[in-house]
Amino acid sequence: MLDDVSITIADSLSGESFSTAHSKGTISSYASSFDEANNISELPAPLREPLSAKYKHSFAYATFKERVPKILLDLIDSLQKQEDRIIEKYGSYAHFELRRIIWSLNILRTEVLENKPFKYFYDKTPDSLEWNSFIKHLTNRERNQWFSAQWLHAECYLYRRIWRAFQRSELLKDFDYFGQKKICSARNLVYLFRAVLKGVSKLKRSRKDFVTMLKLSLWANRCDLSITSDSPSDQIMQTLKQYNRHLLVDQSIEVYRLLTRDLHSSVTPAMVDIILDNAGFELFADLLLGVYLIDTRLAVRVRYHVKAIPYYVSDVTANDFNWMLNFLLNSEIPEFAHLGRKLRYFMKHDIFALYETCKFWTRPEGFRCMRQLAPCLYVQLSFSALAIFKGDLNYRKLLDDINWNSTTPFPDCLGGFLPTSLCALRCIKSDLYCGMPNCLVDLLMLDNPKWMCTGEKAVIQLAFKKRP
């Protein structure tokens, strides 16, 4: 009897092992055939060439093979869960429009997984012609597919396609499909907002305190909703110095010197532009940085730049910016309400400004094309003493997504883009970097080959503009 049981168990285990092995073999075979059919290379991405998902061991490949399909599934799931609330707000016909949007998103997900060519846009939005011209240019160069295009181009196209699915709807064209995630993220971090606000309340004009505020803004960039949603501890102000061991390049003192000693008369008194990245805690930290600059008279005006459409899941739009101001102003927490009233005063008297929404920030080109494609924006930035570019996407656009040698100086990688002095505050979340000390990247690779995709390491880099 025992022998019979043993045989049955052995057969069962044997069958399970065979099934698992067969399943793994099938997946491996599929991956191999996909790579072969789409000319995926096992070689590392070459230097001075754009990053692309055609290199199997790149973060771009992982993005379109794994992250993007998951982002689209999460979005579909979120829309289905919000359906009752959406119908309550927009009416019963929203049910049918929501079904069509979800259908479009499923098609988009299939196109990514099967590496289909990019489609033209036939909507009536003002930038459709520009996008179609750009896609035609990619088609002529055979770089119009998810795994052959430049990574930056393909990702920007992805979020434009998602937006188009909603633009075809009469009722939901202004609906922020990532909005609920961003609002929940902010509300869940009230304890952190309060701790940070208390920690910065007594900071004065000094090099030490300026560096503290700049680094607070930097490390807040760890929080996004598309790669890492981990939030800092509410002890961040007490432990900020401990983060220095993860700061690979630190030019914060040079930034302070720029605002205090090296200002040219043409940009005095100083105005600072902040090109925002993520909503939630990072936006809160960026508002506090602006308040500090004004209160300490390091700047007389701060302008904030946001995305024109819901973008990269957690990027700040005008609605997110205004939501944060109202959230603080209407809070029952006295410190928040006080800050909200201060921000309202700054906005009313043009000390803070939300810069006119510009489509350039969501175009696929790098910033070196700004002078040609958005000359007014370029000129406006040139009036500023300093432009602070937040986050990984802005950094990639500064470098035009080019795989530079890790030791190439930051200013040399900007392709001539320098309307004013530029400061990059970036937690590293992609395999793109420059301006590093010799051998540092090699040492980091030995410790963790995927170190550049975790958001754990960061840089503060400055490109100084000499004015005549």
Provide an overview of this structure.
This protein has helices at residues 2-37, 59-81, 83-90, 94-113, 128-140, 151-167, 179-187, 190-200, 207-219, 236-239, 252-260, 281-295, 318-329, 334-348, 370-373, 375-382, 391-398, 440-447; strands spanning 247-250, 271-275, 301-305, 352-354, 386-390, 422-427, 458-463. The protein is an alpha/beta fold and 468 residues long. A 7-stranded mixed beta sheet has the order 1-7-6-5-2-3-4. Strand 2, helix 12 (281-295) and strand 3 (301-305) form a beta-alpha-beta unit. Helix 8 (190-200) packs parallel to helix 12 (281-295). It is globular. Mean pLDDT is 91; it is low at 1-24. Belongs to the damage-control phosphatase family. Sugar phosphate phosphatase III subfamily.
Name given to the CATH homologous superfamily of the largest domain = Uncharacterised protein PF01937, DUF89, domain 3
Order of helices and strands: HHHHHHHHHHEHEHEHHEHHEHEHE
Strand arrangement within the widest β-sheet reads 1-7-6-5-2-3-4
Helix-strand makeup class = alpha/beta
Question: Could you name the ranges where pLDDT drops below 50 across 5 or more consecutive residues?
Answer: 1-24
Helix proportion range: 40-55%
Compute the separation of the termini in Å: 96 Å
User: Would you give the CATH topology of the largest domain?
Assistant: Rossmann fold
Number of domains: 3
Q: Per the principal axes of the C-alpha atoms, what is the gross shape?
A: globular
* Multimerization status: single chain
- Please write the CATH class name of the largest domain: Alpha Beta
Question: What does the average pLDDT come to?
Answer: 91
Largest sheet: 7 strands, mixed
